[in-house]
Each structure stands twice: as C-alpha cells, then as structure tokens.
## 1
Amino acid sequence: MPELPEVEVLRRGLIPAVVGRRLGAAFVSGKPLRRQVPQQALADLCGRRITAVERRAKYLLLLLDSGDTLVFHLGMSGNLGIFTTESPRRRHDHLELLLDNRTCLRLHDPRRFGMVVLLPAGDGEARQRLFATCGPEPLEDGFSATWLRTKAEGRRVAVKPFIMNSTVVVGVGNIYANESLFAAGIRPTRSVARIRAAEWERLAEAIRTTLTAAIACGGSTISDFRNAGQQKGYFQINFNVYGRSGEPCPQCSGKIEKEVITGRASFFCRSCQQ
DNA sequence: AGAGATACCTGGGAGC
DNA sequence: TGCTCCCAGGTATCTC
C-alpha cells in the first residue's frame, strides 16, 4: 500500500539502478491497469537514456534524455523492482522495461489499480493536467498549519478524510493519516471546523515527522511493499495505532479503538485523542 | 460546492 | 480441506 514514504523509498533505491541506463525493449502484459498501458509509446522509447528519477505526490517520474517523462502510479498493490533479465517474470508483472546492463525494471501490480502514463516531450499541458488537482508536498515549503487551516475554512468534514484528500496535501494515505492524528492527539472523527490553531500546528508537524520517520525506516511493509531491491520496510513496527484495535495505547495503556470513517478503517485512542 | 458513496481488482484471512 | 465472504487500499467519478 504505497503512500508517500514507500514511493520515496522506491525512488531513492531506483536512482543508482536506472539513472544513466538506456531503455531497451518493453514487455506489456496487456491486462489493463487503471488506464491502458501505452504499449506502442513505450516501444518507441527504446534507446532513450534515463536521466533522473523524481516523485510528485505518489507518482514516480522517470525523466528521459528525449524530454519525455514516464510516470508510474502504484495504486494500492503496485511495486517497481530491478531484476536480472534471467529471473522469470511473475504473475501480475504488467510491464517490463529492459535496461542496457542485463537488468530490467518490472511493474508488479496484483490489484491493477496502478497506472503508467507517458508525458511526451514539450507537452507541458499533459503534465499540468495530471498534477492539476495535487495539493502541496507535505515535506516541502507550501505545506503548513496555516495552509491546512485555510483549506478547512467553511468545511465540516472529519479531519481524517480531510488530510487524506490529495487536494489538501498529497501523499497521506490511510496508514499515515491514522498515525499522524495519533501523534497530534486529535481524534480522526473530529470536524475540521472544530480544530484550533495550536492543533493545526501539531497536526502539520505530526504529518511531517511521521512521513520523515517512515522514509528513514524504508517505508512500511504490511503485506507486499518492497523497495527497488525487493527488501521490506520496517516502519510498521513503529505503528502506534494502525491495525492495533484492542491493543493497549502506547501512551496511556487504554484500548485502541477502530471505527470506519467514510469507508476507511480508522484507529485511535479515545483518551489520548480528543 | 462539499461530502460521502461507489467502482475498479485480487489475494489473503476468517468462518463455516 | 474447501468453499464463501469480507477486507485492504488510491483515486476518479457519481449522486445528493
């Protein structure tokens, strides 16, 4: 379940493996992901060199020397990994891009909620369209308590779906929303209309520190996340509330509760989070 | 316009 | 053991 930390960990792992490499042939499974994989466009990239790996929100961007950008979204079960060309493809490998050193980049995505898009060189509009609704990056300037407070003005939605809304801030999925709200001491069901200035400060800070800590741990591996070298992350051992309903709160030993908020499992401690 | 539900998809675990 | 059911999650799209 790649959220921002997992995508960032993947990005950092991919850099030494792919930057400077030339693309070779592309294999496409043909199974549709959230959008159809652009098979012909990928074939046309043969011979192009990868110049950089960037991230915007939960999107991973491979920049090419042609000016084209290959964009990946991992959806809920997607993963990109580097493999030798000899290693057999697995079920659910939907895209394989050969590199010029007998390795390949494979997109593995059992649930097929992922996405592969090619942004052609010079088509700034396509890029604009793809990221048009994205809010600020939580680990960059532009994201702050003031920003959150401003976005919340006139709204009454519960704070948890609010911070998971990518027009508010990108990269915060269900796991890190739960953990950030615990760190900030705010109950996930609380309406954004009832959050005070000092609490917005705590929440903005909690989101930053939670995501940063998760990146430092190599992300969270619940069932299937692996970095580019197929290693697991270990931030999940630091979860305070996510997936821990019925267990004691690490702060007060009260019981962690679970409640579904707008269709998403939410975990909190009733006494530590008001 | 905001809020919430729904659709997309598969594997894994629970329960019978 | 083998079946069915439910759940997980990100985002686009819908309905109210």
## 2
Amino acid sequence: MPRKPAYDRDALIAQARDIFWRHGWAGTSLKDLERELKLKPGSFYAAFGSKDALYALALERYAQDGVASMLALAEELGPLGALKAQPYRVIAASDLPTKACMLAKTYAELQAKDHDLAGQAGAHMIAMKSCFADLFRRAQKAGEISSDHDPERLAARYQSDLLGLRLTAERDDVNAAEIAADIAADLERL
Amino acid sequence: MPRKPAYDRDALIAQARDIFWRHGWAGTSLKDLERELKLKPGSFYAAFGSKDALYALALERYAQDGVASMLALAEELGPLGALKAQPYRVIAASDLPTKACMLAKTYAELQAKDHDLAGQAGAHMIAMKSCFADLFRRAQKAGEISSDHDPERLAARYQSDLLGLRLTAERDDVNAAEIAADIAADLERL
DNA sequence: GGGTTTCTTGAGCGATCACTCAAGTATATA
DNA sequence: TATATACTTGAGTGATCGCTCAAGAAACCC
C-alpha cells in the first residue's frame, strides 16, 4: 500500500550539511534548502520536521565523518602521523564548502542565543577532542612523543590550533600551508 | 536654529558594537538595536543610515581599539612581553560580550555571501596581523627572540592561534588558561 | 483494476525582517 | 517671544521568514 519517497534521504542530509556548513544557520533559508534539495515545503517538513532538525542531522553527519576520517588516517599513518597530516588535509581539501569547521561556525553563531544547536555542536567538539586525546595517548604509548605531557591538554591545544588554522585558511592574505607546517612541526618537539 | 541630538553617538556605536559582537550580524535585528540603543526607527536611520552602516562603524571601532590596546601593552611590557601577555588578556576579560574575536565572527558569518562587511573584517584582520608582525620585528631587534624567523609568518601563526584560543575560550569543557600558557610558552622558544 | 496509503504539490498562514515618512516636539537664533 | 530648524515618534511599507495543510498524484496490496 505505501509509496516510496522519490528522494535519497542520506544524500539530502549530506547536501544540506554542505549548504549549512557554508552559509550558516541564519544564512540558510528554507527557500534555499527547497531550491537546492529540490523539495517542496510539504515534502521537506514530512521528511525532516523542521529546519533545526535537519541542521542537527547535518551536524551529526559532519561530526561522525570527522572522527571517522581521523581514525582512518591514523590507521594509515599511525597516531602521530595522522595528527601531523591533519592540518595539511583540512586546508588542502578544495572540494569542501568552506575550510572553516562547521562545528566551530555553528557554535560561534548560536552560542550567545543559547540555541540547542550550539549545545549539540559543543558536544560534537568534545567528542572530536576526545578522539585527538586518544591519538596523543596512542602516540605516547608507541613512544612517538614524550609521556611528560597530558594528552587531554595536548588535544585541547591541538584542536584550538586547528580551529584557528581552518578559519585563517579562508583568508587569501595568509599562507595557510606555512601555519599548517608550523603546527605539525610543534608536534615533533613533544 | 538647530536642535542637538539627545544621544551620544560614540556611546551608541560602542553599545552597538557589543550587541553585534555577541549576537552576530543576522542574529541582531533592528528591533534589538532600537530597544538597546533606545532609538526609534526614524532616529536610528537618521543617525546611521542602515544596519550595515552601523555594523561597519562598530567593526572599525573594534579594530581600532584592538590595535591601540596591543600597542599600549607593548609600551608597558615591551614587544615580546605584550605578545606573551595577550593570550591571557583575551580570555581573562570577563566584561567582554564574548571572548571570540568580532572580526573572525564577522568574517566566518558573511564571507560565503561575499558581503561587504566580510571584506571590511578581513581588512581589519590584515591590519591586526601587521601590528603583530611589527611587534615580532621589534622583539627581534631588541634581541628578545631570534632573527631566524620571518616576522610575517610568526604573526600569521600567532594570529591564527589567538583566533582559535578565543573561540575555544567560549567552551566550558576546555581549560583556556592552559592553552594560553602553551601559546605564550611557544614564544619563548623562538 | 479497485482501494488504500503515502508522497508531492504549492498557495498561503502569521510573524518578523529592514526600512520609510509624515506628523509632532523641542531648541537655538533673531 | 516668534520662527525656523532640526530631532523624535511610531504606524505602516513590501519582502521574506519558517511553516501548514488540503488537494492531487503515484505506487503498493488484494
């Protein structure tokens, strides 16, 4: 009896993520989403419930992909190798909607309003920080870096530097590759 | 024959700066401004012309104060002392609307739209970077840090780190003082 | 193929957006 | 004090906001 939707829900979420990522929460209107996702208002609300609900799904997708790709990189290059490579990766990716981090953009835009989405972005940033901390711990166990440092503290500083780098990479008066190299070089002195 | 305005224009710009700084461009409505500045629409538009024009004034004020306070700090502590102290200063100031940088927030919010204000924020960031570069140069001339490094590159990295720190300082799961200390410590190894 | 169920469509809802302007009010000059 | 010249007021502009819902179209089961 039922009828299948004409759209691929997962693909739509990924597409919405890219739009939100680039233009932000207030900067993306439902008109924008309807046009890009090719959904009329009725279908949109039947599928996702609200603009905020879709944004939350997009955020979650973004965060999951971020952790997954970091772990995959560690599988390939080892924990320290992944941490050193990541700065280059985030500024090199030219197919991304923007180089700035979507979690950071969301948090910066909505935190002052106590919006739910800011809290969710914050939670995802905590998860990402934990991922970095794990990699630092693994690097210490593998003897790649000294065990004198607190991995949580290293992770917080590393994440902070990455956020700055990714925002700075949007400017064209700055050589982001140099900053990425300096961040990576700092990891070798640990 | 004329009649003086009942408001202090400079004070209103400073107040608008704080509102925009905290809530962003799209996050601040004219209703908000009218309520906080206690101006009816007619007076508002007679005084400032448009929301964007006032935002531009607020941005300019913010940037001028930023450079001025950095130079004042250098007068007191010397160039390297100022660069080392600044990370602590930006996260300690509890009276600020938010710890994140208004230029960075503006740039992040509006750059994807090619909004004029993003370009102005970018220009102010360039000026701030030049200020940092000058301080690094002066620190080198004074023998406080090695002359092996390119001051422009040092300034770009330093500014990027500060942007990350100031955004991170908004989170309560992170000890921002530790990051500030680590940034300052990095300057001693130059 | 008929009946049922879901999906799609798009006009349009009230609220809010940035902004305008004509009328009223206060002040400085003459 | 009279008049000219601002400044202040707030109702109201059209556009856009996120969102609703009734009607039509399409696909599944029997």
